[in-house]
Write a structure and sequence with these properties.
This protein has about 250 residues and is of the alpha+beta class. It has nine helices and seven strands; from the N terminus they run H-H-E-H-H-E-E-H-E-E-H-E-H-E-H-H. The protein has helices spanning about 1-20, 45-55, 80-95, 100-105, 125-130, 165-170, 215-220, 240-245, 250, and strands at about 65-70, 105-110, 120-125, 140-145, 150-160, 180-190, 220-235. The longest helix is centred in the N-terminal third of the chain and has 19 residues, at about 1-20.
């Protein structure tokens, strides 16, 4: 019976991956996006994941590598709906203040070997759940800052399938309050040029100067117009809505 359940879960995960990934990303999955292999990547997977971690440590308005939803005009009930999410997230923050509790509840540290300003502790089951429903008590990732050998919880991350329209996202968290984002125009460096994805003037990756298929092909890279799923960060213990839903928070930190 246990083996059957595992096979059913794996089959479900594959179906979601195929449904949400019109372009074959060849395993380019990371926390909050296509999550089934998060934290278990190797080779090219780790390469893409490292780019994502570095990119999300910078300013969220990243021009050609970032697609964000537009803020909408407030509608009746938007503030109340968003506040319900904040209240649920605060409960999550209280529960997982001690990161050991998160680890015991099957949250996994994404790439703990990489120095990061903010570490994503991701729950695979919650990541799969977002394809079916939105539960604000089940964030895809918990956001921790490293403090010596300890971790300090500062926020949560919710995700949604990349197939979602902005109207779909608006049903989960009103777009008059929150801005969801996607990572786009990713040129993976060819073998032997991976270091050109990092540093002050990178050529490849989510901070790279290459932003088009033609330029990526000319450089010998592998171009992906869209990587990962929709995601939004929430800092529920902040004092006002601007800070709670800040898209610049990681840059400020």
């Amino acid at each position: 019976m246990k083996t059957l359940l595992i096979l059913l879960c794996l089959t479900g995960a594959l179906c979601f991956a195929q449904q949400d990934s019109p372009q074959d990303m060849k395993g380019m999955n990371m926390p909050g996006h296509d999550m089934s292999q998060m934290g278990q990547n190797s080779g090219d997977d780790s390469d893409a994941s490292a780019h994502a971690m570095h990119s999300m440590e910078g300013h969220m308005d990243m021009g050609p590598h970032m697609k964000m939803t537009a803020l909408r005009a407030p509608q009746p009930g938007d503030a109340e709906k968003a506040q319900e999410v904040v209240v649920a997230a605060r409960s999550v923050m209280e529960k997982y203040k001690d990161y050991h509790v998160a680890l015991n509840d099957n949250f996994k540290i994404f790439h703990p070997e990489l120095p990061q300003k903010m570490y994503h502790f991701t729950n695979y089951r919650y990541a799969m759940e977002v394809g079916l429903k939105f539960n604000p008590e089940h964030p895809t990732s918990l956001l921790y800052e490293k403090n010596g050998d300890d971790y300090r919880l500062v926020g949560v991350m919710y995700t949604a399938p990349k197939r979602f329209t902005e109207d779909d996202l608006n049903q989960r968290i009103p777009l008059s309050i929150a801005q969801w984002h996607e990572h786009v125009n990713f040129c993976r460096a060819p073998e032997g040029k991976r270091l050109e994805s990092f540093g002050p003037n990178p050529k490849f990756g989510l901070r790279g100067s290459i932003t088009t298929q033609a330029d990526c092909d000319a450089a010998g890279g592998e171009f992906h117009p869209l990587v990962f799923n929709w995601m939004v960060h929430l800092y529920p213990n902040e004092k006002d809505s601007v800070r709670i839903w800040s898209v610049d928070r990681q840059h400020a930190d």
